[in-house]
Amino acid sequence: MKKILIIDDDEIFEFITRELITEFYPEIEVVSHLSSTEGLQYLKESLASPSTKPDILFLDIRMPEMDGFELLEALAQSYTISDLSPMRIFMLTSSLDANDNRKSVENPFVSGFISKPLETEQLKEIFEHEKTA
Amino acid sequence: MTNQLSDPGLLDLLFPFHFILDAKLGYVQTGQSLKKVCSSLKVFEEDFSLVRPGLGIEYTFESISSYSDQVFILKLKKSVAGMLLKGQFVPLVDEKRLLFVGSPWITNEEVFEQTGLKIRDFALHDSLVDLLQHVKVQQMAVEDVNEMNQMLIRKNEELVSLNREMREAREDMEIKNVELRKINIELDKFVYSISHDLRSPLLSIKGILQLIPLKEKLNTGTVKYLQMAEKSVNRLDQTIQEILDYSRNARLDLRLSTFSLVQMIEGVFADLRFANELPVSFSLEISGSSNIQSDKYRMDTLLKNIIGNAVKYRNPDVKVQWVKVTVSSQNNTHIIRVSDNGIGISEKNMPKIFEMFYRGSSIVSGTGLGLYICKEIIGRLEGTIEVESTPGKGSTFTLVVPTAYQK
Q: Class for domain B253-402, per CATH?
């Protein structure tokens, strides 16, 4: 695993997620975007080559400009699941809306739904799963 | 005989329209009913015209007497619309009197009605009486029918207006319903936005509190402060979640899906194991299928609260603290039993545990909303909740919920 992408408009959560990753996995490159449109743009560019493709995307749901699900819809217009593979997408949110949970489960691009803040146990579970897979 | 006929009472009774003239054709007496029709009889010649016998007859005692074998028709000039009398003149020769006996000759109903005469104005032997009675009965029948018709028309109008009112009320309700639905959806969005906006900064504090011991070398005092801060953050977050649960249960319709109770309960166990450092032994027993058609979100909230309480109110004095859940199905219901060997509930507090804002212990944190929400949710799910408890030994909560709902 080489690269993690975080798209979250809340800079404190972006900081927490990044800090937690670098604490346990200092060798991994963490790229983050506070703007969903810029994040989508970056993601599209990085999908062009396997060498720049992120391994994991942590995606916030409630964001201005474009929310997390809208971003995934925009992505689905030009990419299929196999285009994105093996990148995994985790929705990372402080929403308690059961609809957000349901939409995450139903979306074929999404691997999991995580309640903020990302905690050490969850982080390890996600990253270890990657290693054994 | 003559004397008897001169008795005005008897004559009135037999011939209420009679009159007696003297030799000069002056009125000696007049019948009551005749007076009623025309009260101002003065001069016979001016009062009456002789319709029959007609030509040749003169207004003299002798002339009229000579027609005593003829039927007379007299027209009452002064009466309303010129009423006719039909009858005969009887000359009372000894007394030089002329007696007229007869009764109204009805050729025109309207004219008769204008006279205002009633049945009682006629002698009983008068053939008109039968006719009048017959007419009266018919009129009464017609009046009855008319009255009934009027009543039916009124009732019909009442029904029409009632119908209109009901339709208006229904339309009004439909509009209100649509408005209410809209408000509900807006309120739902509002509650989620608020809860999200309240939680976001809180959860970022929680994240930072968790980062500090990873990044910094801390002394034990600071670690304790951070743990206390995190505890408070968790408590506030729980309160926000409970308020959201309450608001959600109160407003939203049931959203049914089929799911496994076993999976859900194991999920709740996993969350609780993760959140509590103290070892509590969880066990789950199932008999029959644990698949249920219910509201997933509400069921999850319900189980989290009940099982969470069993952990919260554990007894620190017992060696092995356990929570045992059994699931069984019976007669289209699922029975979920949550038992523990915790501190139990005293008899005194038992009636209060489902009340809003009631808290079982000041040591254990909580909003006092948990069991209140459970009771509300059970109500929405059309199930029941029962508690048995022995203080110091433990409690058992028994939930009975429908396995499926008929649509």
A: alpha beta
